[in-house]
Amino acid sequence: MIAGLAERLRRELGPGRVITDRQELRTYECDGLAHHKVVPALAVLAQSTAQVAATVRACAEAGVPFVARGSGTGLSGGALPHADGVLIVTAQMRDILDISPADERAVVQPGVINLQLTRATTPAGYYYAPDPSSQQICSIGGNVAENSGGAHCLKYGFTVNHVTGLEVVTPDGSVTRLGGRALDPPGYDLIGAFVGSEGTLGVATEVTVKLTRLPETVRTLLAAFHGVDQAGAATSAIIAAGVVPAAIEMMDALAIEAAEAAVACGYPPGAGAVLIVELDGPAAEVAAQFDEVVALCEGSGAFEIQIAADDSQRALFWKGRKSAFAAVGRISPDYIVQDGVIPRTALPEVLRRIDELATSNGVRVANVFHAGDGNLHPLVLFDDAVPGEAERAETTSGAIIDLCIEYGGSITGEHGVGADKAKYMPRMFGDDDLDTMQLLRCAFDPAGLANPGKIYPTPRLCGERPGRHTAGDTANRDGAEVF
Amino acid sequence: MTALDELTRPAGDDDVVGGVPARLVAAPRDTAEASALLAATQDLTVVIRGAGTKLDWGPPPRALDLIIDTRHLAGVVEHAAGDLITIVRAGTPLGSLDLGEQLLALDGPAGATVGGTVATATSGPRRLHYGGVRDLLIGITVVRADGKVAKAGGKVVKNVAGYDLGKLYTGSYGTLGLITECAFRLHPRPQHALFVRAVAPPAEAARIRAAAIAPTAVEIDSATGELAVLIEGTPDGVRERADLLAKLLNADISDKSPEWWGADPWAPGGIGVKLSVPLSAVPTLAAGPDAVRGSAGTGVLYAAAAGITEVERLRAACVRLGGHAVVLTAPPDVRDILDMWGPTPGLPLMRRIKDQFDPGHRFAPGRFVGGI
């Protein structure tokens, strides 16, 4: 079946678009979650919406599953290929189609790199606000699939808050345009439903996003504390004071050690925890609030506060934070990156329990997190060469997710459920919740061909349901549809 | 059936939606009772009613057996101030929320309920800064057509686990199920606020954006030719930013909003239209023959239309500019011959969603786009 599909796609897409060579296909066997590996049966390097649509249509007709992939930087295995399916790579669709400061919108193809969009709009005084740590390499299409966040989503929101228009190829291979530059298109919020659906409702082939005005002022401080409790207290004090920083990031001693080893970011020696607090906005507002934040950090026990004097020092503060995941490789041969969310006020208690878990399981956990919104990224360190350590690390990582659920949080704040966390979904949601979510899946993809096996541990069967169809339904159908 | 008798009462003279009288009314006291009610009445068509402030919005239902009144589904379930979130029952009037030093930044008609605000996705001046319903809603509990209770999202702001069904229910006009609880992200109540008011062309909004003063709202009213900007923040910061803007626009500073601020431009019983256009098109729309009022910061505006000709003219203008015009409310004679929703891209997908969530089409049949 795959051979026939490959032949059809070669014919329809032209030369150089279809990969069937096993060695070449191995390039795509995993995304950023490298311990899940599946070689796809076939890969398509799409260059246009028409090519994505032709591929999906061919898959639909052949009953073959398909998985979309942008840059492949996802950390939950969302772009993990299907062994008997087609991988649709959108990385070559990387044109910025329009930048309109007057509309505060940009229109991009899905393969456009997140940071490139910001770079392209900065000269006009704008930027693209969602800034995942992988923003130098991750694609907007992938951001749409995962509803990516970033350090600054505390103030500015996630991808879904910044997408106003989509062109999508639905799992039957048809192309539908949703929204555009204007807000609030009539009908159900299909954009809101699609963003964050992890490739299970179709493939985004064009994205219209909001551009955000560059703030007049950005001020950043690095506060060093003796321990995470103090840093947590400072975070609470800042929120309680009614300040909405652009970002509040925390790292614990082990994460600091790793970052220092990797990028020599110059964090204060001896710190048990550091906070990076960034304020942005009109100079008149930032000035007053920044002094308040400094005082609150001092009041919570900060023993040293560095204030970024310029952009390069600010970049250095952030370098330690943004490189933290990779930096952990300097102090441990192997590690698991976890992503969970707790109500922010539970932070000190949850960190204590993570510490207990680590101790009882005999592994080390480095903590890096978006403290402002309670999004934890515990890094569970282990050595795969030591028998049993990988299992203990996996157990610890899973137990941390249980902690997040116990405290009323979420199993993922920004990395997505993907292949990795589908098994945890029933711990956070009941059967009826998962069943109801999948009604949406059935509306878009009754055959279950779009990225199957992701998000939901048990697929719902989408049988034709007998509906009560009245004459009014049909009468109104004509004339109201616009494609 | 006794169960039905216990859960419902016969409808009264006021239990009418868009001229269609209901047979029965029910006011469940909690999600469990709402679940039992919907499970026991699966062959009945339903319209959900909150405070009724927008009950005349949208076309009338094709059929109406039962009104579900949310008045007893009221109250705050949780307000976690330190986490900047609240969970509220759907029938709670927005105006009754006491969140202390915090703010649920939803604009809507006075007296509107939380559920009605979510179901109609009302959009007001402060959306520019705080976001709209879809941006503030972080979790939802609904009762489906078959009575099953489902939750999506949660009570933490950052959460990407599973489909965000809250987005789907936001602006769904009660056609997908009964919303019983909503979780929202909150904002700190601003310490200070000032309005900068000028008689100025709407195109000045572009200069306000360029000034990077981060306004909370930028509103225009083409009938008076006024432009007003809301600035919030610290007392010193607000004063400084307002001064800057007042100088830029040759405007006045006031601690009071203009009378037209956030008010529907149509009279009760008139034709009310919601318009949305790209930002660059707001001046063009405002310069047209029909008076418009609303946000030059988000491109969502409102108009009172005198008749069908004016509606069609407004809609044609919005579509030409890359936007939409939806008739929110209109008198029966107009409503009967007018396509209130207008062109709806993605309608086939929407029909499939409706068929999945409400296979019997019992929820508000005919009230939504394309006769959904």
From TrEMBL, chain A:
Residues 464-483 are annotated as: Disordered. GO terms for molecular function: FAD binding; oxidoreductase activity. Keywords: FAD, Flavoprotein, Oxidoreductase. It comes from the Bacteria. Its cofactor is FAD. Pfam families: FAD-oxidase_C (PF02913), FAD_binding_4 (PF01565). SUPFAM superfamilies: FAD-binding/transporter-associated domain-like (SSF56176), FAD-linked oxidases, C-terminal domain (SSF55103). Residues 36-214 form the FAD-binding PCMH-type domain. InterPro entries: FAD-bd_oxidored_4_C, FAD-bd_PCMH, FAD-bd_PCMH-like_sf, FAD-bd_PCMH_sub2, FAD-linked_Oxase-like_C, FAD-linked_OxidoTrans_Type4, Oxid_FAD_bind_N, Vanillyl_alc_oxidase_C-sub2. PROSITE patterns: FAD_PCMH. Signal peptide: none annotated. PANTHER family: GLYCOLATE OXIDASE SUBUNIT GLCD (PTHR42934:SF1). This is FAD-binding protein. It comes from Paractinoplanes tereljensis. The lineage of its organism: Bacteria, Bacillati, Actinomycetota, Actinomycetes, Micromonosporales.
TrEMBL record, chain B:
Keywords: FAD, Flavoprotein. Pfam families: FAD_binding_4. Gene3D superfamilies: 3.30.465.10. It comes from the Bacteria. PROSITE patterns: FAD_PCMH. Residues 17-189 form the FAD-binding PCMH-type domain. One of its GO terms (molecular function) is catalytic activity. Transmembrane segments: none annotated. InterPro entries: FAD-bd_PCMH (IPR016166), FAD-bd_PCMH-like_sf (IPR036318), FAD-bd_PCMH_sub2 (IPR016169), FAD-linked_Oxase-like_C (IPR016164), Oxid_FAD_bind_N (IPR006094). This is Glycolate oxidase. The gene is glcE_1.
